[in-house]
Specification:
Layout: E1 6-11, E2 16-17, E3 23-24, E4 29-34, E5 43-47, E6 62-63, E7 79-83, E8 88-96, E9 99-109, E10 113-115, E11 120-122, E12 128-132, H1 143-152, E13 157-160, E14 164-166, E15 175-181, H2 194-208, E16 211-216, E17 220-222, H3 226-230, H4 245-262, H5 278-296, H6 306-318, H7 325-328, E18 336-337, E19 348-349, H8 351-357, H9 365-410, H10 440-446, H11 450-453, E20 459-463, E21 485-493, H12 504-520, E22 523-526, H13 534-547, E23 552-555, H14 562-572, E24 576-580, H15 587-596, E25 600-601, E26 610-612, E27 620-623, H16 632-635, H17 641-649, E28 654-658, E29 677-678, E30 680-681, E31 692-693, H18 700-715, E32 720-725, E33 730-736, E34 743-749, E35 767-770, E36 772-784, E37 796-797, E38 803-811, E39 819-827, E40 831-838, E41 845-852, H19 855-868, H20 893-897, H21 902-909, H22 913-918, H23 937-950, H24 956-963, H25 966-976, H26 980-996, H27 1004-1025, H28 1029-1032, H29 1036-1048, E42 1049-1050, E43 1069-1071, E44 1078-1080, E45 1084-1085, E46 1088-1089, H30 1101-1113, H31 1118-1129, H32 1154-1168, E47 1179-1181, E48 1198-1200, ...
Parallel strand pairs: 1-4, 1-26, 2-9, 3-9, 12-13, 12-28, 13-16, 16-22, 22-23, 23-24, 24-27, 25-32, 27-28, 29-37, 30-31
Antiparallel strand pairs: 4-7, 5-6, 5-8, 8-9, 10-11, 14-15, 17-21, 18-19, 20-21, 32-33, 33-34, 34-41, 35-40, 36-38, 36-41, 39-40, 42-45, 43-44, 46-61, 47-48, 49-50, 50-51, 52-57, 53-54, 55-56, 58-59, 59-60
Helix pairs in contact: 4-5, 5-9, 6-9, 12-13, 17-18, 23-27, 25-26, 26-27, 29-40, 30-31, 30-32, 30-40, 31-32, 32-34, 34-35, 34-36, 36-38, 37-38, 38-39, 38-40
């Protein structure tokens, strides 16, 4: 079973995609998912795709239900589904909150066409269509004889021009009655009807395997249609469209000019009836400007009669009238009202605007008179403006008339109409005039007689470069008065209005017409689609699809832009757009069209079955020639017909032609004037017979072979295309099948110029074709024969008998006349190439080869595909079993990987360059491009994820794969060096790559991708199986963050953790490669990649314990977490945990907070891990049992963990005060001497831990000044001495926990004992806990009370309702800075805060500090705030130089986790509404992290960003505590 195809449409707020085309097949599932701008909002998606069991109604929408497969922690996986089973165009839109529509678009589901008695499917790319002008088919009983030509030429679809009764002009598209079959199809004594046509169509479907479509024409009807005489309201006439009156007046005047010229009345003015030169054109201009325009005075239709208007105004002024303010909005602007009836001088003045604009200075007659004069002057000005406006229109009309006459009478490429007569007027009439000829004055009187003027109907036509979405006959358009319409004088434009009620007869009539068509034909061609009002076409196609759900809709659009094309394609559900090879000016362009209109590139990647829905271009129906365009024999040459057809047939889309092209009819078969019949099929026909054809006629024999080939390629899945411009005339098109790797290569030598008159070179460059040529599918060329020369027949549409096609099919290379030789060369071990030298590839010839891989490659690809089936069933096609399968491939990769640890996965998937270098390796570097981010699979997959969807096979990554095996060997060798299960995985890769290396190089990127994607997804599955149920059942986002645990936690070449006690069980060991001794190999946590990943800078106490809960406890890595906690416990000294670990031996005890984060992690371990309290009884090997002991080997002094905890607490209460060992530049080149003095104590009154001084920085905001030039060297930017808020919170959390443990009998101590002034004192944990509780809010909250007695420095307060960042800092103003640190205290010790104060403080923080990904580290209102971190900048700025502002504004990611967790905690206490709003905020913020991770080639979250989320080049690209903090938020949700 092929996997179900699922496409994902990500919805983004305010994204309107109604001009974007999304095409889907029936049977696909469409999922709507939320983009980052919508996550967390209550979004509703509506669609008019019918619900199960209902019929489609365009205006009936229903909401889709959301499915959230992983529950509720975030919206990254939430989706709603459309199961697409019905073809057509469907609309969707979505909204949230009060916004009903905040985005939307359309999807188009392609029809499924069925043919033959067995109703088998005809794929759209298999279509070969031929157009017939219906009127040239003769009586219905002769049709099959004429249509058989299409069947015998290999076409499988016929397009009939309209079969209805034609209008007077006999144009195929001017229909007199849309409901009546053309009576010409019924011979004397017969009356055929639509049923007879339907039976014939059905017979062709069942017996000939041919489908039929026909045109629908909605825009116009024939001018002599009987029904429009009865229903003139269906057209644009002077009653329902009075705005056309001025244009009609001009049209009549021009008709009278025609009559005058035809009657010789202008001869004496140099204007004879026969117009022959530019003098005559000049004379026409003279007549227009001297006689016509002054006589008809068009400007009067747009002017005001001044005096009556002034009199009306005077009367109002005299009566003291005031302007109606509601109507004028108090604006002083004179408004002229256009007369809706368009009478001469019919326009009037809006008197309210006149009264507002012209205000008299008093009520005296003089003042009123002045005011009237002002109005009179203004009206004269406005009338003058209208006069000039009409003059511009007249100038344009003159130019258009000039252009038309010039083309129709003078131009060589025009019709050369001859003398001006009433039959061939000077210019085509724009309106019908069904009355007797009279004078112009008498004609113009009819305009005011509605019973007559309703019959003056506007003709249809087209306007150059017009906006196709605008109706040029509606008010607001000046096309008719400016004579810009290229007019069809035989057709009347139809006026539908906006809905059926606006013109009931017309809508009903056209609906009946549509239903007749849909009943009998599988599809329709929308004639003149770009001028058909969209709402009309929508309505009619809806009616058609009710009768025939799988309606095939084709159209030709001339909008000039793909975006506008898409408006029609998406709204109407157009299945195929007609494209034409004749539009190409040379063979290169013709080849480009083949590439553009279909197929993937050769060697394209296999796309996953679940993937994003991407915009597509409309499916093409690519024709060598359409029926309404000039004949290619006249424009190019007769010899080009065959090669250009071959190029078209090789396109991976629907293709086709027009009847007459294959017979080489040397002129355009006119849709208007052609009345002869097509020739019939007769296998025995003589070449000279004009009314019969067979396979020897024209290029019919060649076309049959090409049509068969086109259909075979599409049916057998040759959906990859490569177009090669061999030289200026030769185009080679390759179609490739991605499962069998067979190709067909067609080499076509075009002949745009006739070889008889144009010198073509005899030198044809040789061609190299990779693989083994199995056969020549066909070789053909156009040749001359003795059959008389072409003479246009009177009765039949005949072609040129003097040409035929010489063709051979399915021959071996040795029998070819076109190819001289085909030598076999091999390029490298796996490249098998045949070089072809051409003998007779003359202009007009075509040769097509069927090519396979060479037998060895074919076998290896088959075996490789067989081994790939474990990852994707699509590889079954073309797979072969391998009798000699290597042992390693006999197990599935899942079985091999199930034995790997998460530490192994760290090596398999990740490890940055610094980590790899520690082992003597490095990340793979692509020459001329860049190095990969990781040595493991993620490094490759991050790049491939960009390349794969775009099939960017020209990328340097793909080049590198094609050029050699370096990258392939890197992947397997890197793992095989490792030993253990990793080496097995390496052997598995090596075995798979053995096949890969021996297939053609152009296929290596796609199969390398397939192997790696399979291995990667298997590795992820194996990874998540070893994690907690929260991760296993979590969303994609949760899993992505959990991978951060694998990314950060690994075992390096040198152990980073100090050795654990030998008495501890379950500690991993390995044999050291160099010493051959057994050593511990515990996982350690890197702080961030790439800067903090290897060597001494990998492990930091603070970073480790801020990240440990999220990356190890939440993900279920309990044992590894235990080992890290105990490893650090062993390094406790002075009651502190080191920051820089340096394996314990090189540790620096210069931070005040790491010990509190360590204690918090032990608490989290005890509460989150099953039997977690057991850790308290684990042995800790003390490296420094006393402050001054040398580092002791493991096991020398062991203590239980709870004793170490108690020691840390007791030492703080006693007071920690020491000077760092080796103080001086050797351990810190920037620190001042005082900075090496470490202090950490507890305030006996408040219980707050305090410490530090202004020359050191003991918390996470630890930037030390480094610039001599700016004089900040040795000065910390943020000393945060005194009591830092998060340390007070962490201490409180620990005390609460220890008190509880003691009560449960799990912790033996309830007091700390200290010595003070020679006395021993005891302080209970409960008392210490109570002191903090009682004092925290008093000392840290900045209240709104201006006289708060607890406020020591009211003059320093600049924000109220917040919590201080510290208490008792040496620089008091630092206490009052707004920073995000208090949110940490809120999460670990929420009991310290009152709910209302906490909520207000969080809201201030949100407003001031929340950035896109992180939290600003300082209030932007602070004078030293700067949000851009640049560590390399050294200037005179004290606050910036050498990155001094590291924590003074840049947006750090990890605090956002604590901010959001605090919001969630307190929102729960404030009721449902607040909580729901908070969940929206949280989801919305986190969605940005999800997007960042998805796009990041590191698959991580950065340490920090610059202001407003901008990238910071000095930040780690992925940081442990950033990932952990975000994962913890999702865990809390």
């Amino acid at each position: 079973m092929a996997p179900k195809q699922i496409r994902v449409m990500v919805l983004n707020d305010m994204e309107k995609l109604d001009r974007t085309l999304f095409r889907l097949d029936q049977g696909f599932e469409l999922q709507f998912r939320l983009g980052p701008t919508l996550q967390g909002k209550h979004v509703h998606v509506y669609t008019n795709y019918p619900a199960e069991g209902e019929l489609f109604e365009r205006h009936k929408f229903h909401a889709l239900d959301w499915i959230n497969p992983t529950g509720r922690q975030d919206d990254s996986d939430k989706f709603c589904i459309l199961d697409l089973k019905i073809s057509g165009s469907y609309q969707y839109y979505f909204g949230h909150g009060d916004e009903e529509k905040s985005g939307g678009g359309y999807i188009v589901v392609d029809p499924v066409l069925r043919v033959g008695a067995d109703n088998h499917i005809l794929p759209l790319d298999c279509i070969s269509i031929q157009t017939y002008l219906s009127k040239c088919l003769g009586p219905l009983d002769e049709w099959l004889d004429r249509l058989r030509v299409a069947k015998e030429t290999g076409y499988n679809m016929i397009h009939f021009t309209p079969l209805q009764m034609l209008g007077e002009s006999r144009s195929c598209y001017s229909l007199a009655d849309q409901l009546e079959l053309n009576p010409d199809f019924s011979p004397a004594g017969q009356a055929y009807n639509w049923t007879d046509v339907g039976n014939l169509v059905e017979k062709m479907k069942n017996e000939w395997n041919m489908l039929c479509i026909t045109d629908v024409v909605y825009n116009h009807t024939a001018a002599n249609s009987k029904w429009i005489e009865k229903h003139p309201e269906c057209g644009y006439n002077l009653v329902n469209s009075p705005h056309l009156k001025p244009a009609w007046v001009l049209d009549r005047a021009l008709w009278h000019v025609t009559c005058a010229i035809a009657d010789g009345k202008y001869k004496d003015r140099g204007l004879p009836a026969l117009i022959q030169d530019h003098q005559h054109l000049h004379a026409i201009r003279g007549v227009l400007w001297q006689d016509v325009f002054p006589r008809i005075k068009l400007w009067e239709f747009f002017q005001v009669k001044v005096e009556p208007a002034v009199e009306q105004f005077r009367a109002l002024l005299q009566s003291g009238a005031k302007p109606g303010r509601s109507k004028t909005d108090g604006k002083q602007q004179l408004k002229i009202i256009q007369d809706p009836q368009y009478r001469r001088f019919g326009n009037t003045v809006d008197m309210d605007s006149a009264l507002e604009t012209f205000v008299p200075h008093g009520s005296s007659p003089g003042a009123i008179e002045d005011c009237c004069n002002w109005l009179r002057r203004r009206l004269d000005e406005l009338n003058n403006e209208q006069f000039h406006e009409i003059k511009h229109h007249q100038e344009q009309a003159t130019n258009c008339i000039d252009g038309t006459v010039s083309y129709e009478r003078l131009a060589d490429h025009g019709p050369k109409l001859g003398p001006v007569t009433r039959k061939h007027p000077l210019v085509t009439r724009y309106f019908t005039f069904p009355f007797e000829e009279a004078t112009l004055e008498q004609d113009l009187e009819l305009m005011n007689q509605p019973e007559k003027s309703c019959h003056f109907l506007a003709h249809n036509g087209w306007v150059m470069a017009d906006d196709p979405l605008r109706n040029f006959a509606e008010p607001g358009s000046n096309v008719y008065i400016r004579r810009e319409l290229i007019c069809w004088g035989d057709s009347v434009k139809l006026r539908y209005g906006n809905r059926p009620e606006d013109c009931p007869y017309l809508w009903a009539h056209m609906q009946k017409y549509t239903e007749i068509t849909a009943k009998h034909f599988v599809g329709v061609r929308l004639d003149n689609c770009h001028s058909t009002p969209l709402h009309v076409a929508e309505f009619m196609l809806d009616a058609a699809r009710k009768l025939r759900p799988d309606l095939y809709v084709v159209a030709e659009l001339f909008t000039g832009s793909e975006e506008l094309d898409n408006v029609f394609v998406t709204r109407l559900g157009i299945s195929s757009l007609i494209r034409e090879a004749m539009s190409a000016g040379d063979s290169h362009e013709e080849g480009r069209l083949v590439y553009r209109y279909g197929g993937e590139p050769v060697g394209a990647f296999l796309q996953p079955s679940l993937r994003p829905l991407v915009p597509s271009i409309a499916h093409a129906m690519f024709l060598d020639i359409t029926h309404d365009n000039e004949c290619p024999i006249q424009i190019r040459s007769v010899y080009d017909s065959l090669p250009s057809s071959a190029i078209v047939s090789m396109a991976c889309c629907a293709t086709g032609s027009t009847r007459g092209y294959d017979e080489l009819v040397p002129h355009q078969i006119s849709v208007v004037s052609e009345e002869r019949f097509y020739s019939k099929w007769n296998p025995q026909a003589k070449p000279s017979s004009p009314d019969e054809v067979n396979l020897q006629s024209g290029i019919i024999g060649g076309k049959l072979a090409l049509n068969r080939l086109h259909q075979e390629l599409a049916a057998k899945g040759f959906n990859q295309v490569f177009v090669d411009q061999v030289d200026e005339d030769i185009v080679a098109v390759t179609r490739h099948c991605p499962s069998t790797h067979q190709s067909v290569v067609a080499v076509c030598r075009t002949a745009f110029k006739n070889p008889k008159h144009h010198r073509y070179t005899d030198e044809v460059p040789p061609m190299c074709i990779p693989g083994k040529i199995e056969e020549v599918v066909l070789e053909a060329r156009t040749v001359e024969r003795q059959a008389g020369s072409y003479k246009k027949d009177e009765r039949s549409i005949n072609g040129m008998p003097e040409y035929t096609v010489e063709i051979k099919e399915h021959i071996q290379m040795k029998d070819s006349k076109v190819v001289r030789q085909a030598g076999v060369t091999s390029r490298g071990p796996s490249e098998y190439v045949q070089e072809i030298v051409f003998e007779q590839l003359t202009p007009g010839s075509v040769i097509a080869f069927r090519v396979s891989l060479d037998p060895k490659s074919q076998e290896l690809v088959g075996v490789l595909r067989n081994h790939l089936i474990q990852f994707n069933p699509l590889y079954k096609a073309g797979s072969l079993s391998d009798p000699n399968t290597p042992d390693i491939l006999k197990s599935t990769l899942t079985q091999i990987m199930s034995k790997m640890t998460l530490a192994d996965m760290n090596i398999l998937l990740f490890r940055c360059d610094e980590e790899e270098k520690e082992d003597g390796g490095g990340c793979y570097n692509i020459p001329g491009w860049t190095a990969l981010k990781y040595g493991g699979l993620q490094g490759l997959l991050s790049v491939m994820a960009d390349i794969r969807p775009k099939n960017d096979l020209g990328h340097p990554f793909c080049d590198n794969l094609r050029q050699g095996d370096w990258m392939i060997d890197y992947v397997s060798n890197r793992l095989m060096m490792r030993g253990g299960t990793l080496a097995e995985v390496g052997q598995w890769f090596q075995a798979m790559f053995t096949y890969l290396k021996h297939i053609p190089r152009y296929l290596i990127p796609c199969y390398f991708d397939a192997i790696l994607v399979g291995a990667y997804t298997t590795a992820l599955d194996a990874t998540f199986k070893q994690m907690s149920s929260f991760v296993q059942n979590g969303s994609s986002f949760v899993k992505l963050l959990a991978l951060g645990s694998v990314q950060m936690c690994g075992v390096g070449r040198f152990p980073a953790l100090p050795p654990l006690s030998p008495a501890l069980t379950d500690v991993p060991y390995r044999v050291n490669e160099i010493t051959k001794q057994k050593e511990q190999c515990c996982v350690s946590l890197a702080a961030g990649l790439p800067h903090f990943s290897a060597g001494i800078f990998r492990c930091w106490g603070r970073d480790t314990f801020i990240a440990l809960r999220g990356l190890m406890l939440v993900t279920g890595r309990h044992l590894e977490a235990r080992n890290i906690i105990l490893g650090f416990a062993g390094t406790l000294r002075h009651g502190l945990i080191p920051n820089l670990l340096g394996e314990g031996v090189g540790a620096r005890f210069n931070c005040r907070d790491a010990v509190w984060w360590w204690l918090q992690c032990i608490q989290d371990y005890c509460t989150m891990v099953p039997n977690g309290n057991d850790i308290l009884q684990c042995p800790v090997s003390r490296m420094y049992p006393t402050d001054d002991s040398k580092p002791l080997p493991p096991g020398t002094v062991d203590q239980l963990l709870y004793e170490v905890i108690h020691e840390a607490m007791e030492r703080h209460m006693q007071g920690i005060e020491f000077r760092e060992r080796n103080a001086g530049p050797q351990i810190d080149r920037n620190m001042r001497d005082e900075g090496f003095n470490i202090v950490a104590k507890v305030n006996p009154d408040t219980g707050f831990v305090y410490g530090g001084n202004r020359f050191n920085c003991g918390t996470w905001m630890d930037k030390m000044g480094e610039s001599e030039r700016a004089r900040n060297k040795g000065i910390p930017a943020t000393p945060r001495d005194g009591s830092a808020v998060e340390i007070v919170g962490l201490c409180k959390s620990t005390l609460r926990w220890l008190v509880e443990l003691h009560k449960q009998g799990l912790f033996p101590y309830n007091t700390v004992t200290i010595h003070k002034d020679g006395k021993q004192l005891s302080v209970s944990y409960e008392e210490w806990d109570r002191k903090i509780q009682e004092n925290f809010e008093k000392m840290f909250y900045v209240s709104h009370d201006l006289n708060d007695p607890n406020e020591k420095h009211p003059e320093l307060v600049h924000k109220r309702g917040i919590y201080k960042d510290s208490y008792g800092a040496s620089s008091p103003w630092c206490d009052y800075q707004l920073r995000p640190n208090f949110t940490i205290a809120m999460v670990v010790a929420p009991e310290l805060f009152t709910v209302e104060h906490a909520w207000e403080a969080l809201n201030v923080t949100e407003e001031k500090l929340l950035g896109p990904l992180g939290m600003k580290t300082l209030d932007p209102d602070d004078m030293v705030y700067c949000g851009v971190y640049d560590n390399s900048l050294d200037n005179d700025s004290y606050n910036l130089a050498r990155g001094f502002n590291y924590h003074q504004g840049p947006e750090w990611l990890w605090p956002i986790g604590y901010f959001l967790r605090a919001k969630i905690y307190f929102a729960k206490k404030l009721g449902k509404e607040t909580y729901d709003k908070t969940v929206y905020l949280v989801k919305n913020v986190l969605s940005r992290h999800y997007v960042h991770m998805e796009r990041s080639s590191w698959k991580g979250l950065p340490e920090l960003t610059n202001e407003n989320g901008q990238f910071c080049p000095f930040s780690c690209e992925t940081q442990a505590w950033s990932l952990a903090a975000v994962l913890e938020v999702l865990h809390d949700l």
